Amino acid sequence: MIRFEIHGENITVTDPIRNYIEDKVSKLERYFTNIPEAIAHVKIKTYQDSRSKIEVTIPLKDVTLRAEERHEDLYAGIDLITSKLERQVRKYKTKVNRKYRDKGREKDIFAAGGDSTSDESEDNDSDNEIEIIRSKQFALKPMDSEEAVLQMNLLGHDFYIFTDAETDETSIVYKRKDGKYGLIETSIQ
Asked: Membrane spanning segments where (predicted)?
C-alpha cells in the first residue's frame, strides 16, 4: 500500500487535488507483488505564470521511481507523471525479469500480470539495452565539498566523485539545472 506525503508550495493542496493524485499514483500498485510501507513523496509548486511543477518520488527496496513534470494544467501534469512512472516500472520490470530469467530464478518484486503490454514490446525500446562504452579508473582524493566543486568546474564536468576528508566516505557533488550545486553523501548499509 502506497502512503502519500503531498506538499504544496504557493498552492493549497485541496482534497480534490489530493484525491486525484492518490487515485492516479495508486494505480502503480498493480505492477508489484509486495510494496511494504511505500511512501510517495509528492511536491507541487505553482509559479506566477500559472504553470505547475509536480514531482513524485517513490523509494522502494529495489528501485526508486521518480518523475517530474511542468504543465499549465495541474491535473494534466499529474496524468503525465503517472504515465512516466508506469513506463519506468514496465521498463524496469522487463529488465529485471529478463535478468533473473537468464539466471534461472524468478524475482518476486513484480506482479505476473499488471499491464496489458507484454515484455517483448518493451524489448523494442531503443534505449532498452544498457551498453557501457567507456570505463575509467581513478584514485579518490580526500577533500571537502567546496574543493570538489572547484575540481569539477576545472574539469568542465557536471559531477565529481571524491572522498570526503571528514567522514572518509565517498561523496558526489553535481551541478543542478538552476546553476547551483548539490551534494550526495554515501554510506554503507
From this structure: none
Cell numbers describing residue 31: 505492477
For the residues 145-158, what does the mean pLDDT come to?
A: 89
Q: Does the pLDDT at position 189 exceed 70?
A: no
Give the range of the structural domain holding residue 159, as residue numbers without chain letter. Answer: 142-185
Same structural domain, 112 and 148: no
pLDDT score of 182: 96
- Give the residue-averaged pLDDT of 138-151: 89
Burial category of 132 from C-beta neighbours within 10 Å (exposed 0-12, middle 13-18, buried 19 and up): exposed
Residues 20 and 95 grouped into a single domain: yes
CATH number of residue 156's parent domain: 3.30.505.50
DSSP assignment of the chain: -EEEEEEEESS---HHHHHHHHHHHHGGGGGBS--TTEEEEEEEEE-TTS-EEEEEEEE-SS-EEEEEEEESSHHHHHHHHHHHHHHHHHHHHHHHHHHHHHTT----SB-SS--SS-HHHHTT-TT-S---------PPPEE-HHHHHHHHHHHT-SEEEEEETTT-SEEEEEE-TTS-EEEEE----
Over residues 59-77, the mean pLDDT reads: 85
